[in-house]
Design goal:
About 40% of the residues lie in helices and about 20% in strands. It is α+β, with helices and mostly antiparallel strands. It has a 5-stranded antiparallel β-sheet, with helices on one face. A hairpin with a 3-residue loop joins strand 18 and strand 19. Helix 7 crosses helix 9, helix 10 runs antiparallel to helix 11 and helix 19 runs parallel beside helix 21. It is globular and about 90 Å long.
Length: about 725
């Protein structure tokens, strides 16, 4: 019996562990686990149900599919916050001797377990993680890695310890933390998503190999083996190992060097490459999830084009890669031009409209002086460029550290969404005349050359970048995909050009007299315009509140509204206390601190429960693999509630009756991945398709084959044509 080794297997004898890791199941067996319809996903092979209706005792039941079994000794129960577990009661299993791990007990068909528990005062939910491992006992004989399920069950009334805050959802916010706060590793990703491998030719004699892993995954340096296939007199030189390796204590190999996140490995090609257009490289490696499972030996082939520096993904990871859209096929100059055009078009996106209201007011106010217009435009441009470059530098740094970050992903953080809503709400109050922050924010007739006015323009540029991030304009997708895959210097240039495109209209007004001459002359009408333009700001704040509701529920919106009311009170008092004593200013500071308190509570709220919409299937790698194994066409939509482009496509195409009719006609499934909150599985899928963020649309044909990646802006004809082709 082949065994897929997990990190939790450190109780096994060291010799057996070493043998299993080095000789683990072949890659073909592993691929069968997700591609062969005869092998069930782990949660279907072992269906777990839980019953917490009896105070003090949790009852668990596994329904085990035919030809599968569970190990008694591999069941582990870990308590969540406020919960103390007793010793689990498990029935005796069927005894036999495993050739690798010796005497074991296993369960077939079904098994029941009971776990006694006690809870701390104030605990309202029974949270724990349940880990188990099992195998398929007929051909193909494979064993699953250890699998962990997170349980979150309401306690019966008599089991929940009394709490003075019981029934108060806001008061219990600090207690509703998910299992990640305990350091419990998430369920392991399929190996194709956990370890993405690609190779490109820097020139005819130098290759660059890249392993891309989500946060918490690593590969062993000393267990990477490289060789060329059918290369004639060519051979590989000694790899130039980068300095980013980490000394990691390992139960099987001792202290070893591992690489987290991205590993970029330069390797020289030795020999005559004249006349050779491509080479095929085979890479074998071992990798693990930190604190979780270790994967069997993985082998990937990559065919590398030596003539153009093109990239190729390892075949095991690229089975479903789109036929087009590899960002490294885009040249640096083309990527920069696309970024400039995408940034320019970004000005027309609805998410940027509130900030354009601010700039419209400031430019109209300064239309009498070309010098003042230029100062305003340059300060705004500096804010835009600084923000884009800082965003690009942050993405590069996080990518190097093994984190995944996509375009607009900062809006996955509810605290940032709430803070941004408060800032936009405050700017709306300024334009409505409740408070005046400075010349560029509506102080008509004030000094436009003072430092405060220029600082306000710089801040407006920063805000423009923040509110533009949920939008994806035409041309941006390819440029951003190139930036997310390219070396750091090129990535920063792409972000710089995006900023130049966003700032270009205002630079044109400031420096091109023919454009500036078309601006209307200042007058009293400008005050009315300024107040009217406050309402797009309020609408933007309302939209962010809606996003927050989808992320953290109604409690979060209630806290945000309280924060906004306190903020409005603080700004009102700030305006009334101008020129008064210190005590008035201290009260302003106190009110501002009170406005921040609800945001602190908001940050502690758990993620709101999400359910698949009617007519859609929620994305998971296992569900997608099962549908593909059943020869079902799949329209996969990666989306997020904060993504304006996603919502525009849904309104114009995906929510229409014609799209539903096309799904029925072609017997296709509409699968949705919701990236509103962080989701490592969706992040890994986006990385596989070199997508910088959402939206991402991929149509998978029946009968297998590569998925077709669609543009970020959809049309009904484009979608129906793609579905018809997938159904053939």
């Amino acid at each position: 019996m082949r065994l897929a080794i997990g990190r939790m297997a450190n109780r096994l004898p060291a010799l057996a562990l070493l043998l299993a890791v080095l000789c683990g199941m072949p890659a073909s067996a592993v691929r069968a686990q997700t591609q062969d319809g005869n092998i069930l996903p782990v949660t279907e092979a072992y269906r777990l149900s839980a019953d917490a209706s009896t105070p003090g005792v949790l009852k668990l039941h596994w329904t085990i599919a035919p030809h599968y079994y569970l190990y008694r000794g591999r069941m582990k129960f870990t308590a969540g916050p406020g919960v103390t577990l007793g010793e689990a009661q498990l029935p005796p299993g069927e005894k036999h001797v495993d050739p690798y791990i010796g005497p074991v007990e296993t369960y077939h068909h079904s098994v029941d377990a009971s776990v006694p528990y006690t809870v701390a005062a104030g605990t309202q939910h029974l949270r724990l993680s349940v880990q188990y491992q099992g195998c398929h006992e007929v051909e193909p004989k494979i064993c699953y890695p250890p699998h962990t399920e997170q349980l979150d069950l309401p306690l019966p009334t008599s089991a929940a310890a009394p709490s003075p805050a019981a029934g108060n959802a806001l008061g219990n916010a600090l207690q509703r933390l998910d299992g990640a706060a305990n350091g419990t590793p998430s369920a392991p990703l399929p190996q194709e998503q956990a370890f993405q491998f690609s190779a490109l030719a820097q020139d005819a004699h130098h290759l660059l190999l890249r392993w891309t892993m989500p946060k918490g995954y690593y590969v062993y340096r000393n267990h990477i083996t490289l060789k060329l296939k059918d290369a004639g007199n060519l051979k590989l030189g000694t790899p130039a190992w980068p300095a980013g390796g980490v000394q990691h204590p390992d139960a099987q190999f001792g202290t070893v060097t591992v690489y987290f996140g991205d590993l970029e490995l330069p390797v020289a090609l030795e020999g005559d490459t004249e006349g050779r257009r491509q080479v095929t490289l085979e890479a074998s490696f071992l990798g693990c999830q930190d604190g979780g499972v270790c994967y069997p030996l993985m082998t990937r082939d990559a065919t590398v084009d030596l003539s153009g520096g093109a990239t190729a993904q390892g075949v095991a990871a690229a089975a479903d890669t789109a036929a087009h859209g590899d960002p490294l096929h885009t040249g640096p100059l083309a990527a920069l031009l696309l970024a400039l055009g995408g940034g320019l078009i970004l000005n027309l996106m609805p998410c940027v409209l509130p900030v354009l209201s601010l700039k419209a007011v400031s430019l109209l106010e300064s239309s009498e002086s070309a010098a003042r217009r230029r100062r305003h435009a340059l300060a705004y441009t500096a804010g835009v460029l600084a923000s884009f470059v800082a965003l690009g530098a942050g993405i590069v740094a996080l990518r190097s550290a093994g984190h995944a970050l996509g375009w607009g992903a900062q809006l996955q953080q509810p605290l940032l969404v709430a803070a941004l809503a408060c800032v936009i709400f405050a700017l709306g109050l300024s334009m409505s005349g409740v408070v005046q922050f400075g010349a560029s924010l509506g102080n008509v007739g004030g000094s436009l050359a003072n430092r405060g006015g220029l600082a306000g323009d710089f801040f407006t540029g920063v805000l423009a970048v923040l509110v533009a991030s949920p939008c994806t304009a035409p041309y941006m997708g390819t440029a951003l995909a190139y930036a997310f895959a390219a070396p750091a210097a090129y990535a920063l240039l792409v972000f710089f050009m995006l900023g130049m495109g966003l700032a270009l209209p205002f630079l044109a007004i400031a420096y091109v007299p023919a454009v500036a001459s078309r601006l209307p002359k200042p007058g009293r009408w400008m005050e009315t315009l300024k107040q009217l333009l406050a309402f797009p700001m309020y609408l933007a704040a309302a939209w962010l509140a809606w996003v927050l509701a989808n992320q953290r529920g109604a409690d979060a919106v209630g806290l945000l509204l309280v924060a906004m009311v306190l903020l409005a009170l603080a700004l009102w008092w700030f305006e009334r206390s101008r020129g008064r004593g210190t005590s008035h200013h201290l009260l302003t500071v106190l009110l501002a601190l009170l406005a921040a308190a609800p945001l602190y509570l908001l940050a502690q709220l758990p993620a709101a429960a999400t359910t698949a919409q009617q007519g859609t299937v929620a994305y998971s790698p296992e569900k997608l693999a099962a549908l593909r194994a059943a020869n079902t066409p799949v329209f996969l939509d990666m989306t997020a509630d904060w993504c304006i482009t996603c919502k525009a496509n849904e309104h114009a195409v995906l929510d229409r009756a014609a799209f539903q009719a096309a799904l029925r006609r072609d017997k296709a499934v509409y699968m949705k991945g919701d990236w509103t909150n962080e989701d490592p599985a969706i992040t890994a899928f986006l990385q596989r398709y070199h997508s910088p963020g959402v939206p991402l649309y991929v149509v998978f044909p029946k009968g297998g084959g590569k998925g077709r990646q669609l543009p970020t802006v959809l049309t009904p004809a484009l979608v129906q044509r793609a579905l018809d082709e997938a159904a053939r």
